[in-house]
Amino acid sequence: MIIVSGASSGLGLDICQRLLGMGQNVIGLARDVSNLDFEAYSCNVASYDEIKEVSKKIKKKYGSVTTLINAAGVASMNLALMTPPKKTQELIQTNLIGTIYSCQVFGPLLIKNKGGSIINFSTIAVQIGLPGESVYVASKAGVEGFSRAFAREMSDFGVRVNCIAPGPINTKLIKGVEGQLIEDVISRQILKKQFECSDVSDVVEMLIDKKAQTLSGQVIYVGGV
User: Fold this and answer.
1) Are 165 and 126 in contact (CB under 8 A)?
2) pTM of the predicted model as reported, rounded to 2 decimal places
3) First vs last Cα of the chain: how many Å apart?
4) What's the number of domains the chain is made of?
């Protein structure tokens, strides 16, 4: 069983559709799952209690989990000095704390499976040090650091932990971003292009495959830095 957070739209939905198309068993997590035609649970990853409640249902129904993909996230394109405290809290709570909560709650179900894969999400902006996204970058840098350390903690249980850090991808997260800022990011990537969700789903597909058994504790920058 594969768990995917952020499953209602954008990258998370694309990942779900890709995996379902491969014949995988997928459960989506999102705040609003009314638009989904596959098994899904309403859940705010920023709430430990909500994640825990969903995990109990999944454990009772399926027993264990093979893969956890933490695709839920929020972004904010503000200078640090102009980011309101409420937005700062939301970015950290959803992107970093939400990822940690999900790993803490679903980790035991992967251990019960005697192995599996966890995929967390960062951003290429961490390595670029992108101005105008300081707080967002901080939340995702935390995800990278957590993923590296958590990979070592889970290695004895046969669970691999990796992180995907895409450049700008065509989702609603960047719709309100100034075009010049997107071009600036693309110009600093090795591959000078904007990517689609399907490009990231390709990497997800690779990481959960048995051929990727040697990869853990890695951050893969889609676009290259």
Assistant:
1) yes
2) 0.95
3) 33
4) 1
